[in-house]
């Protein structure tokens, strides 16, 4: 049995990144409010109401997850705050920001108060993993629909206000960054510290960005043809994704009803981007998913092209469509490059080493961090790490990177 690994080290750099993440979430919320206010001021209360509705729905879902997780956490790891007050914060949609501020408080103590105990480090890792997951949920429930709405409005009015431009930039960055942050958080559970390098992180960020942009464009174009069409398209595709996730038998939450909430949120993510939920090799599932999304997005764009030929002021969109297709194919190409040459497991292969299964680490083919105190493990993120980062027996022997990765 290999020696037990220390928890991921939380230092000043990690504290600065956590503070930047909290500031970015606050800025994103302010930008959403600014955009909605501009819609109302310019005589478009419907757009303002839709924008605020998306924000409210995303916040409510994230707060529900946060509260369910707090209730299931070991008492020693819950904030020293009365339960009624925690419940009130979540009802007021402040639960996520409370988590961020509490994590900054613990992180400050770990970094500057000379808290060298491993339990403190594990506590900080526990908090950081949950925040990463909640940020991913809220980003895909709020930022990606907002992106489609913003692009639809810009194309509809054929002009972009400053608030809209800034809103789109911040939303695209938040979506891609949340995926990168989530992936890095999962990798911290690996026994061997083969984390993403700077180059790997950049490529991972870019291929996610390049795959999401064409999807958003296709949805916005379809909305130009049929403004209420997404009210039909989204439930149908979401239901198909929900059933697909359910058939893969996820086991993330503590009970059946919360598990359905998790599956529903994952189905929303899958409407826009790939998200693995089952153990084992993902190559075939990934091919099926990307093939479906490429076909669906192409049909949406072709429906707009057939039903509403571009006017002279929208003639540039005829050039944008092939560019979007190339963008998607480039994103897929970067993904292949990442898993073939830039994935951290490639470093293991170059050194002639293998991730052997720890005697107590289960049967998934990856050695995860073991802990002296099991209650200090974030079991939710450990489950996701086993799901996303597990290797099949064939991958253990030959390191077929990409077949069993996120």
TrEMBL record:
Record GO biological process: apoptotic process involved in development; engulfment of apoptotic cell; phosphatidylserine exposure on apoptotic cell surface
Assigned keywords, A-Z: Apoptosis, Cell membrane, Membrane, Transmembrane, Transmembrane helix
Pfam family, one: XK-related
Membrane spanning stretches: 48-70, 82-104, 162-182, 202-222, 229-249, 261-278, 287-306, 318-338
Bilayer topology annotation: Multi-pass membrane protein
Xref: PANTHER family: XK-RELATED PROTEIN, XK-RELATED PROTEIN 8
Family under the similarity heading: Belongs to the XK family.
Protein name: XK-related protein
Natural source organism: Erithacus rubecula (European robin)
Name of the gene this protein is made from: Xkr8
């Amino acid at each position: 049995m290999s020696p037990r690994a220390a928890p991921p080290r939380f230092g000043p750099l990690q504290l600065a990144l956590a503070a930047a993440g909290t500031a970015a979430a606050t800025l994103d919320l302010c930008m959403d409010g600014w955009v909605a206010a501009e819609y109302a001021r310019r005589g478009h209360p419907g757009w303002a109401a839709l924008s605020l509705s998306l924000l409210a729905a995303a916040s409510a879902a994230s707060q529900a997850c946060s509260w369910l997780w707090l209730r299931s956490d070991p008492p020693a790891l819950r904030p020293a705050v009365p339960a009624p007050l925690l419940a009130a914060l979540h009802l007021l949609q402040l639960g996520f920001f409370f988590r961020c501020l509490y994590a900054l408080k613990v992180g400050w103590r770990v970094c500057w108060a000379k808290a060298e105990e491993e339990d403190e480090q594990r506590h900080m890792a526990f908090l950081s993993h949950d925040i990463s997951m909640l940020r991913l949920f809220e980003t895909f429930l709020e930022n990606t629909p907002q992106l489609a709405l913003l692009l639809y409005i810009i194309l509809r009015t054929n002009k972009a206000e400053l608030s809209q431009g800034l809103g789109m930039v911040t939303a695209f960055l938040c979506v891609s960054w949340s995926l990168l942050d989530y992936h890095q958080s999962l990798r911290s559970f690996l026994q061997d510290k083969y984390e993403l390098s700077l180059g790997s992180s950049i490529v991972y960020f870019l291929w996610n960005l390049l795959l999401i942009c064409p999807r958003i464009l296709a949805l916005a174009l379809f909305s130009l043809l049929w403004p209420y069409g997404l009210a039909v398209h989204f439930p149908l595709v979401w239901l198909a994704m929900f059933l697909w996730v359910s058939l893969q038998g996820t086991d993330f939450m503590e009970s059946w009803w919360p598990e359905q909430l998790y599956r529903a949120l994952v189905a929303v993510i899958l409407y826009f981007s790939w998200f693995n939920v089952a153990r084992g090799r993902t190559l075939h599932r990934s091919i099926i998913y990307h093939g479906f999304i490429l076909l669906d997005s192409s049909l949406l764009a072709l429906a707009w092209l057939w039903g509403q030929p571009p006017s002279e002021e929208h003639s540039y969109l005829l050039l944008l469509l092939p560019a979007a297709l190339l963008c998607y194919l480039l994103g897929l190409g970067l993904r292949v490059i990442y898993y073939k040459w830039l994935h951290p497991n490639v470093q293991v292969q170059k050194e002639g080493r293998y991730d052997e299964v720890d005697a107590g680490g289960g049967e998934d083919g990856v050695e995860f961090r073991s802990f002296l105190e099991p209650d200090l493990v974030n079991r939710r993120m450990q489950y996701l790490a086993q799901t996303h980062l597990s290797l099949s027996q064939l991958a253990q022997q030959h390191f077929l990177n990409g077949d069993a990765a996120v």
